[in-house]
Design goal:
Chain lengths: 258, 337
């Protein structure tokens, strides 16, 4: 171990006392393993915000947090060019703990013991949980998809709240997410997005998913359009989305019911 | 201390003043009358007429009998079981005889009819008593206690470990607060491990709720606000243990924890006439109220209420856009023996 430089650590937990506890333990361990707590955050969003300007070596992240949980935080961190190591802490999450055990991902159980924390820090960098593993745990835990999507723009990580996305459109290589303000290029597969947000979005076309709440109306295509059977009109943006013959009836039924 | 052995559902001679018992008697007797009418009618078209004719005799008898039984409830309970049951059957026979002798004196019926009516009334009473005895055996103290123990609300492990973690971090900096927190935690677990068949006073249950919320406040800090509304509440009223705490735990887990800003949990308890009404309300925090854990706790409390109060207590939920309410209504009665 090249323990010359102290480890830079970010503590992420929504409970102030839980953050204090980790801080105390780390200072107790300072002789064996020098470390500096460079910041604290109360949820995943705050953590990502902090990490924009402060590189850290290790993120100690609670799993259950309001706003953005630790699992989702790790998903977004995984997209960074030089992602920090993540050690999960949890008081009790059967499903997550079993999944981590199966995949040899290290985690800490609260109340955390000093020796256990030391061992986890010594083991770094350990195996990083894959995005599919994290997606599975996240789905099971919150019963839904991520609260945000992330994308890179000029070396920075941008977060797009899923509630603001009006539609996704797949092009040759990328998927674009459209919000009322602008478009984002995502590194995602449309089919994954469709299953992750099945309750929020519906497929209109081979290459289009639309937010159910964004649908404003429909227009029959003029003549025999090869591209689309009809067009969907949206709230808030002028563009129309193509609707395939197959999705025409279900899409129209949706708007009638709402 | 009131124990489970005195619950209406578990005595072989039922509590005739209990609404659930009355309902079962009324339905049972009318069901038998319908069946008897069908046998008697000989033609499906005459069934209703035959039943109505019978009801004219059966209903007054039944209501008078129920009235007398509810007056004599405590006296009957003091008798040995078989004697008490014999009294109930006898009373049915005597009432039927009285009614038919009166009818006879007006020359409305013939002599043989009265004896038949007496036998039928006694048979009906016997059948119902047999039903109540079987039912009480199905809900026998041992079984009811086992069911209660299984049902008795469990404190979420999530809460236990997070609380212990919070206490650990207090020990060095604020030892007194850590001590108080451990005391509350031990009270909470003592309550959770208590004999579930015993009733506790409303005051104790409210205290436990306060201690629980203090612990949650330790963890959640400013995010958790609690508003207790207790006006003119009968603090010494015995209620089943751990009714309040699991609902408060639900309110915090589903209403406060998922929100970064937190919110307020309101607990309103008041007496309305002969009923005690408890309303626990929490913000929805964008969560779906029908999360599995929540439903389990509610089903659990519903079943415990049914064991303690039969049909006289109810639990309702109301999911609004911003708040989620759980309402419990209990009879404000005290055991008379």
């Amino acid at each position: 171990m090249q323990a010359q430089n102290p480890l830079n650590i970010l503590i992420v937990d929504d409970e102030p006392l839980a953050r204090d506890r980790l801080r105390t333990l780390l200072s107790d361990l300072a002789v064996q393993l020098p470390s500096v707590v460079v910041g604290e955050a109360a949820n995943g969003l705050q953590a990502l915000d902090f990490l924009r300007d402060h590189p850290v070596d290790v993120v100690l992240a609670d799993i259950r947090m309001p706003g953005m949980d630790g699992i989702e935080l790790a998903t977004h961190l995984g997209r960074l060019e030089k992602p920090p190591a993540v050690i999960f802490c949890t008081a009790y999450d059967n499903y997550a703990v079993q999944a981590f055990d199966l995949n040899a991902v290290d985690y800490l159980l609260k109340p955390v013991r000093a020796q256990r924390l030391l061992a986890a820090l010594h083991k770094l960098p350990g195996p990083r949980p894959g995005s599919e593993l994290l997606a599975g745990i996240g789905q099971e835990m919150r019963g839904g998809g991520r609260t945000h999507l992330s994308c890179h723009e000029r070396g920075r990580l941008l977060l797009v709240p899923i509630g603001e996305v009006l539609y996704f459109k797949a092009d040759l290589k990328y998927v674009t997410a459209r919000t009322a303000e602008r478009e984002y290029l995502l590194d995602e597969a449309l089919t994954h997005l469709e299953s992750e947000y099945a309750d929020r979005f519906m497929r209109l076309h081979r290459a289009v998913l639309v937010a159910k709440t964004a649908l404003a109306g429909f227009e029959k295509a003029a003549g025999d359009d090869a591209e689309a059977y009809g067009w969907a009109l949206l709230r808030g943006v002028p563009e129309k989305l193509p609707v395939s013959r197959r999705q025409w009836a279900p899409a129209k039924a949706l708007i009638k019911h709402s | 201390m009131t124990s489970i052995r005195h619950f209406p559902a578990t005595h072989p001679l039922p509590d005739w003043r209990n609404f659930g018992v009355m309902l079962r008697v009324l339905l049972g007797v009318n069901g038998l009358a319908l069946l008897a009418a069908l046998v008697q009618a000989g033609d499906i078209g005459k069934w209703l007429g035959s039943y109505l004719q019978m009801a004219a005799v059966v209903e007054p008898l039944l209501l008078v009998e129920l009235g007398l039984l509810s007056l004599a409830r405590n006296a009957l309970w003091r008798l040995p079981l078989r004697l008490g049951q014999a009294c109930v059957v006898g009373l049915a026979g005597v009432l039927a005889a009285a009614l038919f002798l009166y009818a006879r004196s007006l020359s409305l019926v013939e002599a043989g009819v009265a004896a038949r009516a007496v036998l039928l009334a006694m048979a009906t009473a016997g059948l119902l008593l047999a039903y109540f005895e079987l039912r009480s055996r199905a809900l026998s103290p041992a079984q009811a206690e086992a069911r209660l123990a299984a049902l008795n609300a469990r404190i979420r492990p999530h809460f236990l470990f997070n609380s212990l973690n919070a206490v650990l971090s207090l020990i060095r900096a604020r030892p007194q607060q850590a001590e108080a927190a451990l005391e509350s935690l031990s009270d909470l677990f003592r309550a959770a491990m208590r004999d579930p068949g015993e009733l506790v006073s409303l005051a104790d249950e409210i205290d436990l709720g306060r201690q629980y919320l203090e612990l949650e406040k330790l963890r959640l800090g400013e995010r958790l606000h609690v508003d207790w509304q207790l006006a003119g509440v009968p603090m010494d009223l015995p209620i089943p243990p751990l009714m309040l705490q699991p609902l408060l735990e639900n309110a915090v887990y589903h209403g406060i924890e998922p929100s970064p800003e937190g919110g307020a949990v309101t607990v309103a308890i008041r007496q309305v006439g002969e009923e005690l009404r408890i309303v626990i309300s929490n913000p929805t925090a964008g969560q779906l109220p029908h999360a599995a854990g929540n439903q389990m706790a509610l089903a659990n409390i519903r079943e415990r209420l049914a064991l303690y109060y039969d049909l006289e207590a109810r639990l309702e939920t109301e999911a609004g856009d911003h708040r989620y309410d759980v309402r419990i209504t209990l009879p404000c009665k005290r055991k008379t023996h």
